[in-house]
């Protein structure tokens, strides 16, 4: 072969390889943090994307976004709605739309292109769409709110009240669960798009031509219905037929109305109204013409087969009342009545939080008859769930199913501490095999007690219904899973699962404390568990909704109640506890820091200021004295109010923390006067706090509890010269208690944070790797499959509670070492600082940050330490490697000092620190 020809091929190959190495790819493009959102409710939506590239140290230096109302135009690189032009920026998240005015119900298409720091211009991303919602209340016209019946004004109660003692409540007339139908015509021409905008309160199920629309559960999300309600948007283009179509809607009570039936469990009494709905179907034909179908008096309504619907008490369904084909065109609705038009209350806005769905189906691991005619199904896992029943039997036979977290000593469903009595019931139609699941209620359970039926294969002399199958359907918020954790410790892996099941079980329309007894958005859980959950799930939308709920629930004097939405006005500290209400300041700040969205601070500045000013009004000489304190700490008495820490300490510490957040927020928003105001006030609070609570002689705060010292250290309330003694007191207290936990709901997260920040992760390991004292391991030993309300897994408390799960954060930031950089937001810069503690010899962690997936995997093998990491494109990290002898450190098989693309920073606390850019790295240290 000609030598020149060979040389030419080699040159071409090398050139092609170099081009390939410089390739940069755009992935995961999102509008409003969703792939193709519908019902976008803002005129300034945000755009985000992630990048992939083979070369190291890649960063974005510019981008260009195109938005069009016509996909064909966009394919020609024409953005007739917005062409940003080249914008020189490293930012690839939360880019604000800056084009022409966006129109209600319109669908838009967008794509993005980037330039990197190596001079490479990317290809255009794939095209994605977003559809606007109904931007103004007038856009709903002429659709009207409709109902089957209206509630008597004297029975309207909100905020509600908690039942106490033998208090009797009356209701003139209980709500019936309605089902609506609306026939409508579709022209015989090509449909370009068809969209349903619907709100059905408390909850709705929508069908079109006899088939359910979507796969959501409990739509729409919970809200404070006197202030705001949420609507949901569905694309039904492919479900419409030429000619006659029929919409069907069933409604349930949800939190809109809690039935006052004293034979069923009720956490609280609250009635905003009886079930109601509003709907608009917007059809656009290919020729540009449009047609709307609107809810009004012409819709027909009757009572549905749902005979009881309660978010707290369960659901009853009577299949003998079914009207087959009621939501199809073949049905005669002459016996139905016309809907009643009612007045609108509050503002309607699009549901931004991810919907609830069935996430997992669990089969029973055992079925046994514990009493004559009573069967217990064990599903092996405590979870937020409904049941899926498959049954066959006679007309009118009734099956009752009682869910429970655990059993009584004699083998019956035990609901004593999860809300009782609660049950599902199903009355059979007698038409062969029947399938049913509840539509508008759920519970937290592992077991189901069945009465009135027998499992398949069991002798049945009474001819009872036969259960062909009964399964547990786990329902949860569908926020994207973004984190994975595993390590060599089976105990820690099991603890991870324990916490994760409670997180999943309480990620509903709000972050609840428990999925049965309360189902309320207790706010201390939301802010204290925020980082733990955010490492595992993308909660930007969910937490944005929680902030909106706080705005709706905030009182005129600035108080943020302990729960949001506030459905019941609880007494005293259970409504006004600063450790809870401080979520109104902490969560907007968290959303900004974790997800990089400054608008959340701009939009909620008034919320934050109003609450801090309210706390200031409650102070006596800069100290707060009210609140629940370190709830459920481990003291000598039954857990509840703080036992080991004076109750004024934790609210004052949170008040100081709020002041500093508000000062920083004011600075970011260029509010100089407010910045100085809150900075100066924070200084005064710090002085007063130390004068009140610091014991100079003993070198600790208050009575020396884990919580008192940890929260003071975390909030930077401790003067510099006292920090060391304060930390020593914490560690000494833990060791003196044989590594036992005493910190409760408020203090435990700060205890873990302080120990990690101060290099004492070995103490965290010792506290949480044992099973003979109250804590995580102890709960596992007691048979818990989800996190319990009390450290001691008491039978008198909930066994599925989303508090005290803060070790999850340490699994990622400590063992995995993935930590946010204090000087950056959204993990644009981050830290890799793995903690090799106890007998753990490997760990594998991944986390999909807003900029891309971070990986951290380490292993100790023989005398070597191997650490493999991935840094996403457009980010940088500081990696803290164990040891100070750089001669022992290699990266990808070569001495690290020879690696020009890795920058040595310094040696600190026995670690060698390096700065690295994007790419995959394999560090090794031998001997280790």
TrEMBL record:
GO molecular function, one term: alpha-L-rhamnosidase activity
Limits of the Alpha-L-rhamnosidase six-hairpin glycosidase domain: 481-814
EC number: 3.2.1.40
Pfam families for this protein: Bac_rhamnosid (PF05592), Bac_rhamnosid6H (PF17389), Bac_rhamnosid_C (PF17390), Bac_rhamnosid_N (PF08531), Ig_Rha78A_N (PF25788)
InterPro entries with a match to the protein in the record: 6-hairpin_glycosidase_sf, 6hp_glycosidase-like_sf, Alpha_rhamnosid, Bac_rhamnosid6H, Bac_rhamnosid_C, Bac_rhamnosid_N, Ig-like_fold, Rhamnosid_concanavalin
Single biological process term from Gene Ontology: carbohydrate metabolic process
Residue span, Bacterial alpha-L-rhamnosidase N-terminal domain: 189-359
Enzyme class: hydrolase
Keywords: Hydrolase
Substrates-to-products reaction catalysed: Hydrolysis of terminal non-reducing alpha-L-rhamnose residues in alpha-L-rhamnosides
Full protein name: alpha-L-rhamnosidase
Organismal lineage: Bacteria, Pseudomonadati, Bacteroidota, Bacteroidia, Bacteroidales
């Amino acid at each position: 072969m000609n030598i020149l020809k060979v040389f030419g091929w080699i040159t071409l190959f090398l050139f092609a390889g170099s081009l390939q190495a410089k390739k940069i790819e755009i992935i995961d493009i999102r509008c409003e943090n969703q792939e193709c959102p519908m019902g976008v409710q803002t005129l300034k939506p945000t755009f985000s994307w992630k990048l992939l590239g083979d070369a190291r140290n890649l960063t974005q230096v510019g981008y260009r976004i195109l938005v069009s109302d016509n996909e064909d135009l966009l394919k020609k690189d024409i953005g007739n709605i917005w062409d940003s032009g080249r914008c020189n920026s490293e930012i690839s998240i939360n880019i604000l739309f800056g084009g022409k005015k966006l129109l209600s119900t319109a669908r838009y298409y967008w794509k993005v292109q980037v330039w990197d720091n190596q001079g490479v211009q990317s290809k255009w991303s794939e095209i994605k769409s977003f559809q606007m919602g109904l931007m103004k209340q007038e856009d709903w016209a002429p659709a009207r709110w409709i109902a089957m019946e209206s509630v008597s004004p004297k029975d309207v109660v909100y905020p509600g009240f908690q039942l106490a003692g033998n208090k009797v409540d009356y209701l003139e007339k209980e709500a019936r669960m309605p089902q609506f139908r609306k026939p409508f015509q579709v022209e015989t021409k090509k449909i370009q798009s068809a969209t349903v905008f619907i709100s059905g309160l408390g909850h709705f199920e929508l069908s079109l031509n006899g088939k359910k629309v979507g796969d959501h559960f409990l739509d729409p999300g919970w809200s404070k219905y006197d202030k705001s309600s949420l609507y949901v948007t569905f694309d039904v283009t492919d479900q419409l037929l030429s000619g006659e179509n029929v919409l069907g809607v069933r409604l349930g009570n949800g939190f809109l109305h809690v039935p006052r039936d004293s034979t069923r469990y009720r956490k609280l009494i609250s009635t905003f109204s009886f079930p109601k709905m509003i709907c608009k179907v917007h059809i656009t034909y290919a020729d540009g013409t449009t047609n709307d179908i609107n809810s009004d008096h012409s819709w027909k309504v009757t009572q549905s087969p749902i005979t009881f619907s309660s978010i707290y008490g369960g659901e009853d369904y009577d299949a003998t009342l079914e009207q087959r084909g009621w939501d199809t065109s073949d049905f005669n609705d002459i016996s139905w009545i016309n809907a009643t038009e009612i007045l609108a209350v509050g503002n309607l806005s699009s549901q931004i939080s991810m919907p609830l769905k069935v996430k997992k189906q669990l089969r029973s691991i055992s079925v046994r008859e514990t009493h004559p005619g009573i069967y217990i199904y064990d599903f092996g896992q405590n979870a937020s769930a409904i049941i899926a029943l498959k049954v066959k039997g006679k007309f009118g036979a009734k099956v009752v199913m009682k869910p429970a977290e655990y059993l009584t000593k004699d083998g019956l469903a035990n609901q004593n501490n999860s809300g009782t009595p609660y049950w599902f019931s199903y009355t059979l139609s007698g038409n062969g095999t029947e399938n049913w699941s509840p539509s508008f209620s759920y519970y937290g359970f592992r077991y189901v007690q069945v009465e009135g039926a027998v499992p398949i294969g069991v002798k049945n002399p009474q001819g009872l219904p036969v259960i062909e199958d009964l399964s547990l359907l786990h329902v949860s918020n569908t926020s994207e899973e973004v984190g994975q954790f595993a390590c060599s410790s089976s105990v820690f892996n099991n603890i991870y699962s324990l916490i994760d099941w409670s997180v999943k079980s309480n990620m509903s329309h709000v972050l609840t404390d428990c999925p049965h007894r309360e189902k309320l958005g207790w706010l201390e859980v939301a802010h204290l568990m925020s980082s733990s959950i955010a490492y595992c799930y993308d909660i930007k939308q969910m937490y944005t909704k929680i902030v909106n709920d706080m705005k709706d629930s905030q009182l005129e004097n600035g108080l943020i109640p302990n729960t949001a939405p506030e459905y019941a006005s609880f007494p005293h500290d259970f409504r006004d506890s600063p450790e809870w209400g401080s979520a109104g300041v902490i969560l907007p700040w968290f959303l900004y820091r974790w997800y990089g969205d400054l608008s959340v601070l701009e939009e909620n500045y008034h919320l934050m200021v109003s609450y801090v000013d309210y706390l200031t009004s409650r102070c006596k000489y800069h100290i707060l004295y009210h609140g629940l304190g370190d709830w459920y700490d481990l003291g000598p008495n039954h857990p509840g109010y703080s036992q080991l820490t004076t109750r004024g300490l934790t609210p004052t510490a949170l008040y100081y923390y709020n002041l500093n957040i508000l000062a920083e927020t004011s600075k970011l928003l260029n509010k100089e006067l407010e910045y100085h105001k809150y900075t100066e006030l924070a200084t005064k609070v710090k002085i007063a706090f130390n004068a009140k609570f610091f014991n100079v002689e003993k070198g600790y705060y208050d009575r020396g509890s884990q919580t008192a010292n940890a929260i003071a250290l975390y909030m930077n309330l401790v003067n510099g010269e006292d920090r060391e003694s304060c930390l020593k007191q914490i560690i000494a207290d833990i060791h003196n208690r044989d590594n036992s936990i005493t910190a409760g709901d408020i203090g435990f997260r700060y205890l873990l944070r302080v120990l990690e920040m101060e290099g004492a992760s070995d103490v965290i390991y010792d506290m949480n790797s044992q099973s003979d004292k109250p804590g995580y391991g102890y709960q596992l030993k007691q048979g818990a499959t989800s996190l319990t309300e009390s450290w001691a897994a008491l039978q008198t408390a909930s066994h599925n509670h989303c508090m005290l799960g803060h070790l999850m954060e340490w699994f990622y930031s400590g063992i995995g070492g993935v930590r946010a950089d204090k000087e950056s937001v959204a993990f644009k810069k981050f830290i890799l600082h793995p903690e090799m503690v106890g007998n753990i010899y490997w760990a594998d962690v991944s986390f999909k940050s807003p900029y891309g997936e971070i990986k951290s995997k380490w292993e100790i093998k023989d005398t070597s330490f191997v650490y493999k990491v991935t840094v996403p494109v457009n980010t940088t990290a500081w990696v803290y490697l164990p040891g100070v002898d750089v001669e022992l450190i290699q990266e990808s098989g070569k001495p690290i000092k020879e690696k020009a693309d890795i920058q040595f920073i310094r040696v600190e606390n026995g670690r060698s620190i390096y700065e690295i850019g994007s790419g995959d790295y394999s560090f090794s240290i031998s001997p280790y």
